[in-house]
Amino acid sequence: MFKGSLVALVTPMLSDGAVDYTQLEALVDFHVEQGTDALVIAGTTGESATLSHSEHCELLQRAREIINSRLPMIAGTGANSTSEAIQLTQCAKKADADACLLVTPYYNKPTQKGLILHHQAIASAVDIPQILYNVPGRTACDMQAGTVGELAKVSNIVGIKEATGSMQRLADIKNLVDDSFSLLTGDDSTTCDFILNGGHGAISVTANVVPAKMANMCRLACEGKADEARAADAEIADLHRLLFVESNPIPVKWSVSEMGFGELNMRLPMTNLADEYREPLRQALIASGAL
Fold it and tell me: Is this prediction's pTM over 0.85?
């Protein structure tokens, strides 16, 4: 089971847009040292939408070589074309990823039946553990609890990243899956409550900049130490908010660069963080100990 603090890792880039593998290695070393439980490579925070197919597959392969066996690696392989998602998932299998994270098809707005058939097709095509990813705020597609319950019957569909932030949705899903099914949140600001209400962890943006604090908070919550977990969460609450003042990964990419992990480079249509947000975010990074 995947649990604890899983980091939705940024993808450092050079000024020409190429992946900066030197800084990627530095980031991986940082997260190993800080107690991160797993790394998600080429997810939304990793700017997967702007990677070509070949770049995506190379990133997974190189990241696996850098991570080696030090941490579990989860590969983002979702797409709004089922055939493309299968191809990317095959790349992840070839790269020896420990699991894949598959976002609901964006823009297409499939029905719940379409979601079931989409994920069943990928699971059948590639024998690798797969984690569903529901983030309707970005995809315009909401995977309902009943759909999750149906897909949980597939042997290699092993969990979900549920990013609505709804505790009711968590409860509804929890009632439909067995205890081995990983329940992960994708909403940093409600992670503490999510785990205290029966979730297992988070795939986190905030953990890019305060991995040890995020891992500690998740651990306390998993142990049922509610007061201690909430106190730990309060220390990083400003980051949960300020890392989303513009579309992810704009604020976190700026933050990671401020921390010394490479140049501040993003691929269009993503742009660098607006000047008005930089000082408030810098102060939150200082207060949290990230700077």
Answer: yes
